[in-house]
């Protein structure tokens, strides 16, 4: 800013501010969805709050590091499925996902994908329509049962051996991962009834009852019983062949049905074999211990293969995972590799050839949605912790809107009192204050709309509180400036000469005051979470915009008034400066008389 009114060109500053406003509102109305409204938080528009409770296989306390890592992965998963305006926060051992609006159904599925791993398929069997009865078990057989194709035989939707050299072919997955084609199992077993005379051997390391209350005693017993049957180390013999009796008992005890609760979900031991459901709950699988964790996946994408005329999933691994995958595919060409997510097989592709570079293509009768769902599971499905079934709560906006209405009424009353005070105390300068506050509000509104589009910022009650407090900071800048003008006029200067001198001195105080407010807001934003961050963000943003308004609007308008030839506008009495002008005139007269007396003496 110039040091004198003669050097200041108020029109240029006002034109610059007008240009900023025009550009901002052009972006508001001509980009995005063209709706001039900011994104609202869950407390203002309603939404869904999903709570995921972390748990460990032994029931112990999860580490803070693993919780933070899980939160970050879930946050990336949220961004990957395109759920905007979502917050992912830690609350003790819980991960709380807050989704505004009507996107909650997508968020409810986030807690269902917790731990991903790769296991070799030893055998599989079809899931019977009617569960087998203990008194009349179906006979075990090594031939394919109804609906189970023989190994390597082309089936409807199952690709044949015409794949690319670096591809695996897959039956469509479940859990959002595929269509209706069945995999080609290597060996088939039919579930048999458990025998009362030969109880299954227990697992070597049954899960102890949790000590922190994360699950109750009954659930802990269910986990131990499921492990004893479905993760028995003797399910697979030393020769790699399944123990048919134990496998039949484990499969008979396993219920594969939509939304069926699996006690082993998140509690399975990757070092032990596993009997699991898969393929739209049509098949039951016997799987070897995990040979590759899902954390070794580098990336997964879906796309349309023009040559094949079908949707495919492209999978790549990290360096260590690439080596492990290459070794496995080299030794198990023609076999199946199961992608296991929380004890559920989401896909079990046949290995066509050895894949040495890790770049794998999964094919099958995928729709676009199927391919994307499987890709998302592979990309975002592996977490360092397992989570209990998600607790999803629908939040109504009624309470938030009532609070917003009460807050706006209170803020409006406070703003009206400020206007009345400014008009009474500063008169025409008070009008400039009101005009500056209105322009500041217009600037803040445009920025909020654009931030909602560009970075997904959502405005909530805490953010509105920050905006209301920022009004006081903006008004305080005007008061500092106008009081400094009074000091200059009180010293005997005219209004015109007081403006540049008063501005030079006032702007230092304004900068210092706003800098303190901005630093406080920035520190609060860094160390806080949730709603407090929203409060700090709007407070800091409004503080910065306050400087823009004071520099480009308030001071230029005051300078224009001080140089105006209109006697009404430049009259100090109409600006609330009449009293201090009289004091300044008296001081100036007394100084002149004192000098005259000194000269006469």
From TrEMBL:
Subcellular location: Cell membrane
PANTHER family registered for this protein in UniProt: PROTEIN TRANSLOCASE SUBUNIT SECD, PROTEIN-EXPORT MEMBRANE PROTEIN SEC
Membrane topology term: Multi-pass membrane protein
Family of this protein: Belongs to the SecD/SecF family. SecD subfamily.
GO cellular component, one term: plasma membrane
Keyword field contains Transmembrane: yes
Name of the protein this chain belongs to: Protein translocase subunit SecD
Gene3D superfamilies from the UniProt entry: 3.30.1360.200, 3.30.70.3220, Multidrug efflux transporter AcrB transmembrane domain
Gene Ontology MF terms in the entry: protein-transporting ATPase activity
Record GO biological process: intracellular protein transmembrane transport; protein targeting; protein transport by the Sec complex
Stated role: Part of the Sec protein translocase complex. Interacts with the SecYEG preprotein conducting channel. SecDF uses the proton motive force (PMF) to complete protein translocation after the ATP-dependent function of SecA.
Compositionally biased tracts (Low complexity): 142-174, 182-196
UniProt source species: Amycolatopsis rifamycinica
Transmembrane segments: 12-30, 399-424, 431-455, 461-482, 510-528
Protein translocase subunit SecDF P1 domain boundaries: 67-121
Record note on quaternary structure: Forms a complex with SecF. Part of the essential Sec protein translocation apparatus which comprises SecA, SecYEG and auxiliary proteins SecDF. Other proteins may also be involved.
Record-annotated SecDF P1 head subdomain domain positions: 282-384
Database matches in SUPFAM superfamilies: Multidrug efflux transporter AcrB transmembrane domain
Compositionally biased residues, Pro residues: 129-141, 197-209
């Amino acid at each position: 800013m110039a040091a004198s009114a003669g050097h200041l060109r108020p029109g240029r500053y006002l034109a610059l501010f007008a240009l900023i406003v025009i550009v901002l509102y052009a972006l508001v109305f001509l980009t995005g969805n063209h709706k001039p409204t900011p994104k609202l938080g869950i407390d203002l528009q309603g939404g869904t709050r999903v709570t995921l409770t972390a748990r460990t296989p032994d029931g112990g306390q999860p580490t803070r590091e693993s919780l933070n890592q899980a939160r970050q992965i879930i946050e990336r998963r949220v961004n990957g499925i395109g759920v905007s305006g979502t917050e992912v926060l830690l609350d003790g051992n819980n991960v709380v996902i807050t989704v505004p609006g009507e996107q909650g159904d997508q968020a409810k599925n986030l807690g269902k994908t917790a731990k991903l791993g790769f296991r070799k398929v030893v055998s599989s069997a079809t899931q019977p329509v009617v569960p087998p009865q203990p008194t009349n078990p179906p006979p075990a057989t090594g031939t394919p049962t109804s609906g189970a194709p023989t190994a390597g035989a082309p089936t409807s939707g199952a690709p044949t051996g015409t794949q690319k050299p670096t591809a695996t072919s897959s039956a469509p997955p479940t859990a959002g991962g595929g269509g209706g084609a069945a995999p080609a199992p290597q060996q088939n077993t039919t579930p048999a009834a458990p025998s009362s005379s030969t109880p299954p051997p227990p697992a070597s390391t049954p899960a102890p009852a949790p000590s922190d209350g994360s699950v109750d005693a009954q659930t802990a017993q269910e986990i131990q019983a499921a492990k004893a049957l479905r993760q028995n180390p003797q399910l697979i013999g030393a020769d790699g062949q399944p123990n048919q009796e134990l496998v039949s008992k484990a499969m008979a005890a396993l219920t594969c049905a939509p939304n069926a609760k699996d006690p082993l979900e998140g509690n399975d031991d990757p070092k032990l074999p596993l009997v699991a459901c898969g393929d739209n709950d049509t098949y039951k699988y016997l799987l070897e211990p995990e040979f590759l964790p899902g954390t070794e996946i580098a990336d997964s994408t879906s796309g349309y293969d023009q040559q094949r005329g079908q949707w495919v999933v492209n999978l790549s691994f990290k360096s260590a995972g690439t080596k492990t995958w290459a070794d496995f595919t080299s030794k198990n060409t023609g076999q199946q590799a199961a992608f296991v997510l929380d004890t559920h097989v989401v896909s079990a592709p046949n290995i066509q050839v050895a894949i040495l570079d890790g770049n794998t293509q999964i094919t099958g009768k995928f729709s676009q949605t199927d391919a994307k769902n499987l890709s998302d599971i592979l990309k975002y499905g592996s977490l360092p912790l397992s989570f209990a079934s998600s607790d999803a709560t629908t939040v109504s906006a009624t309470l938030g809107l009532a609070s917003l209405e009460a807050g706006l009424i209170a803020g409006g009353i406070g703003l009206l009192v400020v206007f009345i005070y400014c008009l009474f105390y500063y008169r025409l300068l008070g009008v400039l204050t009101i005009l500056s506050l209105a322009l500041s509000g217009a600037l803040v509104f445009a920025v909020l709309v654009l931030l909602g589009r560009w970075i997904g910022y959502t405005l909530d009650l805490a953010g509105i509180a920050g905006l209301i407090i920022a009004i006081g900071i903006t008004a305080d800048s005007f008061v500092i400036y106008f009081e400094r003008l009074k000091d200059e006029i009180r010293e005997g200067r005219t209004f015109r000469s007081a403006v540049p001198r008063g501005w030079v001195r006032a702007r230092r105080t304004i900068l210092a005051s706003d800098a303190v407010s901005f630093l406080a807001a920035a520190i609060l934003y860094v160390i806080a979470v949730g709603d407090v961050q929203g409060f700090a963000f709007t407070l800091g943003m409004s503080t910065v915009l306050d400087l823009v308004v004071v520099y480009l609007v308030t001071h230029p308008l005051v300078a224009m008034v001080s140089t105006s030839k209109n006697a009404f506008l430049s009259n100090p009495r109409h600006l609330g400066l009449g009293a201090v002008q009289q004091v300044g005139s008296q001081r100036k007269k007394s100084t002149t008389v004192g000098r005259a007396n000194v000269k006469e003496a």
